[in-house]
Amino acid sequence: MADPKGFMTTPRQEWPRRPVEERVRDWDEVYVPGALLPIISKQADRCMDCGIPFCHEACPLGNLIPEWNDLVSREDWRAAADRLHATNNFPEFTGRLCPAPCEAGCVLAINQPAVTIKNVECAIADRAWEEGFAPSRPPDRLSGKTVAVIGSGPTGLAAAQQLTRAGHTVAVYERDDRLGGLMRYGIPAFKMEKHHLERRLEQMRAEGTKFRTSTAVGRDIKADDLRTRYDAVVLATGATAWRELGVPGRELTGIHQAMEYLPLANRVCEGDLETSPLSAAGKHVVIVGGGDTGADCLGTAVRDGAASVTQLDIYALPDTERDEDTEPWPTYPVRIYRLSGAHEEARDLRTAPVADADARLFAASTLRFDGDAAGHVRSLHLVEVDARRRPVEGTGRTLPADLVLLALGFSGPDRKDGLVDQLGLDLEPRGTIARDAGFATNVPGVFAAGDAARGQSLIVWAIAEGRAVAAAVDRYLTGSSRLPSPIGPYDRPMAV
């Protein structure tokens, strides 16, 4: 503990964002470049070195947060990077994309603003790359065992890296033309620039991991053929089966899923397209869904140059402080008002004059869509709902809508490629892949991890699943494993 009074003398200070008027004109990350390092050592000083660090329990990776906070406060960046990478394969991803349940579990957060754990993590990761503290780690010798990992999102990449470093020959199969899963085509560049992803992929290639892009297992390669070619198979395909909105008018053109809209915008940033065929430029946009994917659509539509953007959230406007009765410390408060970078932009630019706060209409449920003579959506009819989602009489209203984006979450793995059926996998009632306590499916040698089996979750859970399934596969192949296994398949976040 570098400064035993740091939490009393130093106020919380976060990585500042660039001015709204500047950042909405580009796709770069929203934060001021270089503004984190000058403040982060003092912020790390705020760590209390508490007797029971609940931040450990709040993070499924088991990150050694007080240890690397202390090292950063002393500016021992090499040791901090070693401690961070001991539990997390990709801290530059989580430091940008994770909603930081660790901060919700920070002991200081009982009565003060939490330590800026996420910012410290990001600073360590970035410094590690700058100083060469994250070298490739190829295995000393090969085991002679082969593993196929299907899916290159955070779960698949974490599993592949762990298994490669353990000495197994690993090939990652990705159905898209580029690697990264939702980190590539779902997460906008203003939240995480893709060079962070490319850097890790190059590290993995240097370690010996093989990658096969534009290959949909089940369609381009039969699942049984892949199963016979490898000693083990890890299914990390994600939960990409999106939820639908069954209301009158859904068949109108101009109504799209968020994951139809966001990948095209990312392809523009990649240089594949000059403009997106679903661009929001000049259109009145309504986003149905109040989660992070909806916020990603919001920030993207603002940068597209939409005429207006409104986001609908079926839940009531939450308080700015946690409800200690329903979501007490140290649990992660889901229902709390948060202002993401996209919402800050929408608020300052007044993209939705009818909104309750920033660009959001709360307690709003969609009733129907109306269109023009050509069958294109032109308006959305909604109604206010109570806490039990029952319509409130006399609260109906109509919003102009030339483009509607559905961001309602995901129910399980997409079965259109045929992978699930070809392998004969058992499924849970909710549509996810069934597995036992060792991450194994009902098919011998086939394991499942990440959102495909757990259901839609956070990036820290995805990476933790990848590390845990790697240990399970290593044990299956060799009889034992020294790889860390931070979670089990049935573990869940802290709750009341």
From TrEMBL:
Keywords: Amino-acid biosynthesis, Glutamate biosynthesis, Oxidoreductase. InterPro entries: 4Fe4S_Fe-S-bd, DPD_II, FAD/NAD-bd_sf, FAD/NAD-binding_dom, Glut_synth_ssu1, Glutamate_Synthase, Helical_ferredxn. It comes from the Bacteria. This is Glutamate synthase subunit beta. Residues 38-69 form the 4Fe-4S ferredoxin-type domain. Pathway: Amino-acid biosynthesis. It comes from Streptomyces coeruleofuscus. SUPFAM superfamilies: alpha-helical ferredoxin, Nucleotide-binding domain. Gene3D superfamilies: Alpha-helical ferredoxin, FAD/NAD(P)-binding domain. Pfam families: Fer4_20, Pyr_redox_2. PROSITE patterns: 4FE4S_FER_2 (PS51379).
